[in-house]
Amino acid sequence: MPIPDDAAGSNSVLYRQHVYLGVDPSETDLTDEVETLATVQDIDLDDADTAVSELSEATRSRWESFTEQVDALAQNRTTDASEAVEIGGVSSVYTAFVDGRGAEHIGEPADDPFEREPDALIEIAPIDPGFIDEFRAYFNHYLKCQIRDCFVRMGLHPPEEFRTLGPGRIEAAEQYKRLEMYPDFTDPHNQALLGSD
Predict the structure, then answer these.
(1) What is the phi/psi pair of residue 2, to 5°?
(2) Confidence category of residue 184, pLDDT binned at 50, 70, 90
(3) For residue 113, which of 6, 16, 64, 89 is within the disulfide window of CB 3.0 to 4.6 Å?
(4) Contact yes or no for 138/128 (Cβ under 8 A)
């Protein structure tokens, strides 16, 4: 994806993508109940990957009711759905950048599968991703930093597995630099922040 012509430079550009999570009920112990609910609600589970915008109003309403009932069922049964979590959809890639005058420009994805807030917002500067294993390690670290940011911005010390230094959400990194109430978790020399509770 080319760097926008009016961007101040490659260091002022972020490639962004929305990621939406979903749960595959067939990977949980709720399979029979979910299939029964789908039949009662007249839901075709094969349509689960269809974009919301492509569904009729009536079908969308049935899906909303169905997902609320599945959620209630899972909570009542205290089902561990961690093995069933999957990527439910991703948007197209788009850019956010700062121009030569310092003005911020945030694009919109050309295609977004859901009409809700994404579960994750990927923001990556133009980089050479290297080999897939290197990029996977980088990306795993980046996602841990995003999770860390969620805890820190709620005023909580992150759990040990998310006590890491590095860039996560750009908005959080800017706050670490500007606001004294936050320690700077983007500074690799700030090892004291990784201590215990």
Answers:
(1) -70, 150
(2) confident
(3) 89
(4) no
- Closest C-alpha among 62, 61, 63, 65 to residue 48: 63
8 vs 17, 108, 149, 175, CA distance in Å?
21, 19, 27, 22
Tell me which H or E stretch contains 106: strand 104-106
Read out DSSP for 128-187? ---SHHHHHHHHHHHHHHHHHHHHHHTT-PPPGGG---S---HHHHHHHHH-TTS--TT-
Is residue 53 a contact partner of residue 115, using CB atoms and an 8 Å limit?
yes
Longest dimension (CA), the chain: 59
Check: CB of residue 120 under 8 Å from CB of residue 44: no
DSSP H or E segment with residue 37: helix 31-40
Q: What pTM does this model have? A: 0.68
What is the DSSP pairing of strand 94-98 with strand 120-124? unpaired
151 vs 192 pLDDT, higher one:
151
Q: Give yes or no for a contact between 79 and 29, defined as CB atoms under 8 angstroms apart.
A: yes
Which positions ≥6 away from 74 have C-beta within 8 Å? 23, 28, 30, 81
Give the pair of three-digit tokens for residue 64: 């909303």
